[in-house]
Design goal:
It is built from four helices and no strands. By secondary structure, the chain is mainly α.
């Protein structure tokens, strides 16, 4: 394991509040969060993480945040991170299923049009031969 050193700094109270809010939203310890922020800073503002993950952070209303916390309190063992990732994953899977169904429908329509065009050509050829 890599050797660790402690880092302590006084920061404005408002900034501290923002840090804590984002840290909790990401379900990270303070040490993990500070390490992530510093790594991103030294990568010149890039959001790419070393382990193949990316940071997705956003703010929500106090009311929605409270509802999420209430839900999580009634579902022990489910972290905020797991909850949000689950919601995103389910919605993306639903979207991908709809897109796949749409593609199948379009492919079937194109196949039906090709079949109809082939039948029309055969009828036209038969009419031409009969003449």
């Amino acid at each position: 394991m890599e050797k660790r050193k402690n880092l302590c700094a006084m920061i404005p109270e408002e900034l501290h509040g923002r840090v804590k809010q984002e840290q909790e939203a990401l379900a990270l310890t303070l040490a993990q969060y500070v390490e992530m922020v510093l790594e991103e800073h030294f990568k010149k503002g890039g959001k790419e993480m070393g382990n193949g993950t990316r940071t997705l952070a956003f703010q929500v209303s106090e009311e929605l945040f409270g509802r999420v916390k209430e839900y999580l309190a009634k579902h022990p063992g489910l972290s905020q991170r797991e909850f949000v990732i689950g919601l995103i994953t389910r919605e993306l899977e639903r979207y991908e299923e709809e897109a796949a169904e749409e593609n199948r429908t379009e492919a079937e329509g194109a196949e039906r049009n090709n079949d109809e065009a082939g039948e029309a050509r055969e009828e036209q050829e038969a009419d031409t031969e009969a003449s």
